[in-house]
Here is the input.
Amino acid sequence: MKKLIAAALAALTVALFTACANAGQLAYIGDEAARAAALTGAGLSTEAVTFLGTELASRDGVEYYLVSFTSGDSRYESQVDALSGVVIQSESMPLTQSASAPAEASITAEDAKAKAAALQPGQILLLENLRFDKREEKNGADFAEELAKMADVYVSDAFGTVHRAHASTAGVAAFLPAYAGFLVEKEISVMGKALSDPARPFVAILGGAKVSDKIGVINNLLEKADTIIVGGGMAYTFKMAQGHTIGKSLLEADRVEYAKEMMDKAAAKGVKLLLPVDSICAAEFSKDAAPVEAGEDIPDDLMGMDIGPKTVELYCEAVKGAGTIVWNGPMGVFEFPAFANGTWKMAEAVANSGAVTIIGGGDSASAVEKSGQADKITHISTGGGASLEFLEGLELPGVACLLDK
Here is the structure.
């Protein structure tokens, strides 16, 4: 009988139901009724989880050993009940009970090793939080080897962590046959095709706060996209580079020259680089601030908080007829209702474009979920940092280490 070590942070690995929130997760095997009951009891929406069913649970006599980042969140009580008889804990601490970090050795201590050795088909061993061991984030080879000794095969299905070279995401692959899980396979294939062979026109929408966070992404997409739309706080560094006044808006002064270079590069390559032509502003960064409309030049006492109505019209028109749309980063401070319109309108336009639509994780995924358009999107990535680095064209350590990429 083979034992499978599965990393599943914001995902599932072969018939594991995973409910994720903040830094924690639990998993159970059950039917649709059990799933619905657990969701209701935990106060979680169906969008928060993924489920494959029980038919794969002990297929071919495989036992499951789940590497997990757990937390003491009371919302998981119903999941813990569902785990009864299926999951075996490596520690005596109840999973819903907060506790101080255990000694480093306890994660792979004799207790854990004994329970791993005694696993029966269809059972799951849930380890303690791996980050309690300092060697996890340092990709310690000794820690990775200790984890690997408890299993025969490694499956990576935590796309949200594959950009990190940690012991459980990359190091363990040096000691076990390593494969991609269903979610990682989907993430890589969908986003990979969008970048390597997109249906055209290919439109990229970039938002968020800082240009510095998107430098590599912009550079890479200028080689691939037909149109790049820029919104969010990062847009004001570009507006400054154009010579406009931006008031108190977010500015990365050391990136103004870079913004000029990107605009010049886009023009030289024939890529449309669209920037806001108006903004919704406020005198202060507050959800209660009164929205004020401004044109391309923002008064000194105001800051840009969202794209304005003319920009919304311009951007929504730009996605019509697109073959592929990749969106990473909101158009404004969508967490504040008065400044969410630009993001909601873009979400609606993208969802109804008829294109292959891909949403990067993090704030982008959250924005689309809150807009109510998520069910119309082709693919919403589960990894914010991972999807950003993938769009940047960087090698992902947690993917590079796998035998089947």
User: Anything to note?
Assistant: Residues 8-104 have pLDDT under 50 and may be disordered. Residues 182-196 form the longest helix (15 residues). The radius of gyration is 23 Å. The CA atoms of residues 207 and 329 lie 4 Å apart.
